[in-house]
Amino acid sequence: MINKLRIAIQKSGRLYEESVQLLKECGIDLRNVKDRLKTESDNFPIEVFFLRDDDIPQYVEDGVADIGIVGENVLFEKNKRVTVVEELGFGKCRLAIAIPRGQHYEGISSLRGKRIATSYPFQVGNYLKQYNVDADIHEISGSVEIAPGIGLADVIADLVSSGSTLFMNGLKEVETILKSQAVLIQNDSLNELQLQFLNKLLFRIRSVKKAKRSKYILLNAPNDKLKDIIALLPGMKSPTVLPLAESGWSSVHSVLSEDEFWDRIERLKDAGAQGILVIPIEKMVL
Ligand code: ATP
Ligand code: ZN
Hints:
D-Maltodextrin-Binding Protein, domain 2, Alpha-Beta Plaits, 6-stranded mixed β-sheet, 8 helices
């Protein structure tokens, strides 16, 4: 019986750093990761395989790796039998259709009969079919953004994050096919022990993710404004309130989530809070 988890992550590229970083933040020490095909951890029953991202869904389906980190864009393109266990919140991008900037566009029917260069023929084909648009899909494996410039295609479908690559190549985005981020995937026949390890890992990943979305906040409040200020703070249970050395003042500690952060800070100031400190949280175990 296999008594460890084998995880496949990208060998190098856009997902590599953050995949290794996530394991590190989960307290998993990896031996010497540079230029290796695989490595192990001394403090968690995990072995790491470094692979091309395109191969990860297949390896996980086959059970060569038990779990993997891969972009949803690759996962959907490969269409393998694996289960998504967790969205990881990094590697965010979208699969978009882009056309030469000067070209006229009147909606998706404008793509009829066009030559579309992409590394994602399956998803692009599905998308066009959904709108009953017939086009000529050319699969190419890289540098898709230069295809229109060299006359290989009329339009492209490629991954975009900021849009600066498209801009530099004289292209504009006209349709979004898919929004993507990195996800943790799992093979469907893990043994009992591996499932235990996976749950342990997931628990840690969720604590790290939660912490990233939250900030620890400390502030000073005059006692007569305490009630209003506390009402603005959610906290894990309720805020901690401690008396300051200066009479009539208290120190209030709480946790704020990133989405509501700026809005709350402004309202706290208006309510009379002073000396507001905001501190990152490393782990958050609920
Ligand atoms: P490999 O050598 O592993 O095949 P690759 O060249 O296919 O690498 P990368 O460019 O490193 O892949 O991208 C890996 C993943 O990062 C993508 O599949 C996607 O999920 C994500 N990603 C995030 N932002 C972008 C972006 N702007 N362009 C491309 N991919 C992005
Ligand atoms: Zn790839």
